[in-house]
Amino acid sequence: MSPQSKIQSPKPVRRNVVLGVTGSIAAHKAVDLASQLAKQGCEVRVVMTADALRFVTALPFKTLSRHPVVTGLYDEEEGWKPAHIQLADEADLLLVAPATANTIAKLAHGLADDALTCIALALNPRAKILIAPAMNGKMWLHPATQQNVAALKARGAEFVGPEEGLLSCGYEGPGRLWAVEKVAGRALELLA
Fold first, then answer.
1. Is 49 contained in some domain?
2. 6-13, long-range: CB within 8 Å, 24+ apart, which pairs?
3. Range of the domain at 84
């Protein structure tokens, strides 16, 4: 065997994305987002809020990410470390898509009452945060939401969207989740 045959090509670096899915009608679009990121070589770990589970089940996320889905603070862990702490330690990117006004407010004020917000609060300092809002236009434009967005931006979080258009509530205006391809593209740029 020649010395060159012993040399192995380096394994591609897998980037760890924690995908937080919240209780928006756009939650079903996060399934496609998880799929696109996994196809691009990301290690996708999905965390769903209780409200997200009212719109979509954990099964498609588990299948596409090939990992268990975290749905609560007390889910069984694979090792000794609580799942939310392990994910916070390993994340290169925390992507919250779709992000509701409620979750944005919790993140802005440091509330940690579910697995997703605990991950955000315990997130390792090298990880980036990308937030893709989806909500009613009046909720998005409300001064409280805008103050929460400004607070998160001041701490380094990046926002993509929302887009304008016909909303599921019947109104026309801002609040639609940014196109999944654009969200995935921006996530990959941040991981590059």
1. yes
2. 12/41
3. 14-191
Q: How many domains are contained in the chain?
A: 1
- Whether pTM exceeds 0.85: yes
Cα–Cα distance measured from residue 192 to residue 187, given in angstroms and rounded to the nearest whole number: 9
pLDDT tens by residue, 138-164? 999 999 999 999 999 999 999 998 987
Q: What is the CATH number of the domain that holds 24?
A: 3.40.50.1950
Q: What 8-state DSSP symbol labels residue 9?
A: P
Task: Choose the catalytic residue: 141, 169, 171, 172.
Answer: 169
Over residues 58-90, the pLDDT tens digits come to 999 999 999 999 998 887 666 677 888 999 999
The token duo for 95 is: 């992507």
Does residue 42 have an active-site annotation?
no
